[in-house]
Amino acid sequence: MKKHTRRTALIVSLAVIVCCLIGGTIAWLTDTTDQITNTFTIGKVDIDLTEQNPANKTAQMIPGSDITKDPKVTVDASSEDCYVYIQITNNAADYLDWTIANGWTALSGQTGVYYREYTKSTTGAEYPVLADNKVTVKSTLTNAQMDAAAQTPPTLAFKAYAIQKTNITDAADGWAKLNP
Q1: 0.90 surpassed by pTM
Q2: Is the bond into 54 cis (omega within 30 degrees of 0)?
Q3: How far apart are the C-alpha atoms of 104 and 160, rounded to whole Å?
Q4: CATH class of 47-178
Q5: Taking residues 90-117, what's their average pLDDT?
Q6: CB atoms near residue 179 (< 10 Å)
Q7: In this prediction, what percent of the chain has a pLDDT beyond 70?
Q8: How far apart (Å, rounded) are the C-alpha atoms in residues 146 and 61?
Q9: CA distances from 27 to 16, 19, 98 (A)
């Protein structure tokens, strides 16, 4: 009986060893990380062009007089760094004199286009377009010119544009990409 017990003990021992070997062989080494979630926000450029004066956008020309004209470009505080442009279409050059406000630079090769750079801020920015917010009616106007102006009123028009600075080479490149 001792032989049989030994044999049984040996078989049980071998079975346990084999089970341990098999169990150890099929065990997988594993690991887990924490999840990383990326959230992508949307960048934007947001501008506005406003003018309070002259009221109803019409003003009477009297030679030698100043006319209050206050167009301004406002860049929203949420805007990214950008190039801001003002395009001035001047069909009143024979009648009016004006000067662009400080901070605007004439865009080389473009008539009536000026630009400036905006750097992101917490408050945004307001940029007057005309120096002293005025135009001056030329004092040298003749009656014939005034009669012609009565038939075809002169105009001074403004349009603002903006484009991100990121991935834009310079102001000329930005204007070309806007392609107004």
Answers
A1: no
A2: yes
A3: 12
A4: mainly beta
A5: 96
A6: 5
A7: 90
A8: 9
A9: 16, 12, 84
**CA separation for the pair 30, 126 (Å, rounded):** 59
Q: Where are the alpha helices (DSSP H) in the chain?
A: 2-25, 143-151, 171-178
Contact between 130 and 117 (Cβ < 8 Å):
no
Q: What is the dihedral of CA 130, 136, 138, 139, to 10 degrees?
A: -150
**Who wins on pLDDT, 45 or 28?**
45
Provide the pLDDT for residue 55: 83
pLDDT value at residue 146: 92
d(CA 89, CA 112): 6
Residue 132 one-letter amino acid: D
Beta carbons within 10 angstroms of residue 7's beta carbon:
10
DSSP single-letter state for residue 26:
S
CA gap 100, 110 in Å, rounded: 15
* Assigned token pair, 9: 């003990």
Domain ranges of the chain: 47-178
- 164 DSSP β-pair partners: 82
Nearest to 154 by CA among 87, 99, 91: 91
Q: How far apart are the first and last CA of the chain?
A: 105
Instruction: Yes or no: say if 115 and 175 are a contact pair by the CB < 8 Å rule.
Output: yes
Q: Check residues 168 and 8 and name the one with the higher pLDDT.
A: 168
